[in-house]
Amino acid sequence: MASSPSCSVLAVPLLLCLLVSAAAAARFAPADNHLLACGATAPAVLPDGRRFVPDSGCASTRLRSPAPTLPSAAPNTAPQPSPLHAAARVFSCRASYDLAVRRRGYHILRLHFYPFEPALVSARFHVGAAGFLLLHNFSASAPVVKEFILPVHFDVLVLTFVPESGSNAFVNAIELVSAPEELVGDIGTLVTSGGTDQTKGLSSQVYETLYRINVGGRKVTPFNDTLWRTWVNDGRFLVNTESSNSWVWSFGGRIAYPKGSRLMSREVAPDNVYNSARSVSSQGKMKWGFPVPAASRYLVRMHFCDIVSKALNELYFDIYVNGHLAVKDFDISGATGFLAYPYYIDFIVDVEDEGTLKLAIGGSKNSRSDEPMDSGDEKLARAYQLVSTKTDY
């Protein structure tokens, strides 16, 4: 653990990336686990062990299109960054995948796009699923994975691609995985310039993942996450945080998840996320800024875990969302009743004209430590863009 000059900090992990023990890393077994290598003629196996099967021969998936769809193979002249990028399915007109659903409820949908030829770079299209428009007038000039978390209420999820007039649509790979019930809560805290208010109905929305950040830790890859997520280091998002006033902490102990809890599990966030943290002096403030589309509403989930304190109720801090005080005198151990127990808070915030989502952690006068700023607890887990446009997709 790094040491700080007489600073008793609260170790709130912000996404960390240490390897988890075999017992802790037991894989989540989703009821639905569609892994499709679109346009491929043979299965593609990823470094994390997952096996993607060709979309043309999968018994639980049906591809519908009034015109032939074209498998396209990447040229062999350059190595591909992933086995999933070796082929693509190209659509010249509206086409749909029917994906069988064994268990209704929230699912994670990931769409992989890797434009390995000019025709794919210029492709422009729309994507819809479960009656929602997910991507509008979309084009991929560089490799990208678009992730959505959406409720599925039927025994078949229809995923539709619609090319713009005179253009094509394409996709390299599709993942549709059942999400654990505890992943999406129903209640959040709406933060505005006028204060905060509890809001319900979060569990009926569709979300697009924009950022998943590991504060103070290294990159977490799908190999180390039971839901095959990627968490990136927060360094490039830090704003005006002097290195002399902040510290990075790591925790070698075991993160304790409440037994039988319907709110917290390793599927909400893995140990790798909670084993590291940033802290700041009691006089300082730690800030992050995330570029986002303006005029939108966002769900921000902040993860915390006290991995530094020696006793309960020692560290208090204030949480700011978009410059507004969201929580005053927050004590993680007071919320959980234990040290090294994970915890998260969901905030809802509107981003207007500026196009930057801002988060900050600051010290509290209630802190009982010599340097009461518990600062390492800023766990920005992820920011979701709300997708609410109903369509005929």
From TrEMBL:
This is Malectin-like domain-containing protein. Residues 37-367 form the Malectin-like domain. The lineage of its organism: Eukaryota, Viridiplantae, Streptophyta, Embryophyta, Tracheophyta. The keyword rRNA processing does not apply. Gene3D superfamilies: Galactose-binding lectin (2.60.120.430). One of its GO terms (cellular component) is membrane. GO terms for molecular function: ATP binding; transmembrane receptor protein tyrosine kinase activity. Residues 1-25 form the signal peptide. It is found in: Membrane. It is a single-pass type I membrane protein. It comes from Oryza meyeriana var. granulata. Keywords: ATP-binding, Glycoprotein, Nucleotide-binding, Signal, Transferase. Pfam families: Malectin_like (PF12819). InterPro entries: ANXUR1/2-like (IPR045272), Malectin-like_Carb-bd_dom (IPR024788).
